[in-house]
Amino acid sequence: MAAQEAAARETTGQSSAALPCALWSALMTTDHPSQDSKAAPRARNAAAPGTTHFGYREVGEAEKPSLVQGVFQSVAGRYDLMNDLMSGGIHRLWKTAMVDWLNPRPGMTLLDTAGGTGDIAFRVHDRLAAFGAAPRPADDHIIVCDLTPDMLMVGRDRAIDRGILGGGPGSISWVCGDAERLPLPDRSVTAYTIAFGLRNVTHIERALSEARRVLKPGGRFLCLEFSHVVLPVFAELYDLYSFKVLPAMGAAVAGDRESYLYLAESIRRFPPQDELAALMAAAGLSQVGYRNLSGGIAALHSGWRI
Q1: How far is residue 160 from each of residues 14, 16, 44, measured CA to CA in Å?
Q2: In this structure, what is the dihedral angle of CA atoms 53, 58, 63, 69, given to the nearest 10 degrees?
Q3: Distance (Å, whole) CA 146 – CA 105
Q4: What letter does residue 203 receive in the DSSP assignment?
């Protein structure tokens, strides 16, 4: 894969998440060019040894995975609704922007981590299918890995509804696994994506190291995540929405206030854009850069295994 040429393309153009058809997406989309700095990220509200953050709570490291599973077991059947409430519906444009930046090509083996309901996998599958009915390369395959079986069940059901069945080239596999201990061999995939999942892991550094481990040389890493708003006036409005409106809507629409409150809190605990870029570089990813989407409500981070 021509990583250098791709990196040059990434620093120009506008993301489709900046379309003027919705309020938040009308805000600026800004590119931050590739960085190869190995400088260590600054400390950030570190938890006590042996503990980590679950939203604003401090919990044991061993306890967090089951707590995260509980949240997503609760929302699995309403996951699209959850993202619609959290983003005003703009998550659909952000996910399309992610796949645009990935630029899928035949012969890609994609690992989509924390992708249980298949939103990214189906978009990539459709892009690859658009190349035509010629025999698909043997390694043309998508693997969806998720910690929560309930999320994978939703994704598999959607795949059946779409007629995506069986194995072989062009298929989608569904695997239950942990982003910090991926059940894949070294250098086995050409692309790794994670959308709205990295902030839920216990150790971000381990998840990033695992991503690099399973990528082949020349492989691409892309992370889409809620991030930190870069427009001060809008940040106050977004905080009001996140901590007052969103939990109330979660209670009214989904009957689950606490899960939606956790999701808002987890965003605030997540590293800002530059810190995440530094963590990616420290994990061994190269040509690291990011794009702010909708004024920083979300961000797309990119890196390569060189």
Answers
A1: 34, 29, 43
A2: -50
A3: 24
A4: -
State the Cα–Cα distance between residues 37 and 277, nearest whole angstrom. 9
- The domain limits of the chain are 3-13+59-305
**What tokens does 181 get?**
């201990």
3-state secondary structure of 276: helix
| Angle, helix 257-269 to helix 64-75, in steps of 10 degrees | 130
Answer yes or no: CATH 2.102.10.10 is held by domain 3-13+59-305.
no
* Top-confidence residue, 203 or 24: 203
Give alpha helix (H) positions in 162-256.
204-214, 232-240, 246-249
At 56-87, the pLDDT tens digits run: 777 788 888 888 878 777 777 777 777 777 67
User: Letter for the amino acid at 231?
Assistant: L
98-125 tens-digit pLDDT: 999 999 999 999 999 999 889 999 999 9
Q: In this structure, what token pair is assigned to residue 143?
A: 């693997």
**β-sheet bridge partners, residue 293:** 298
Percentage of the chain beyond pLDDT 90 is: 49
Q: What is the spatial distance between Cα 296 and Cα 27, in angstroms, rounded to a whole number?
A: 9
Give the three-state DSSP class for 72.
helix
Q: Coil, helix or strand for 258? A: helix
pLDDT digits (tens, 9 = 90+) for 256-306: 888 888 888 888 889 999 999 999 999 999 999 999 999 999 999 999 999
β pairing state of 109-113 and 189-195? parallel
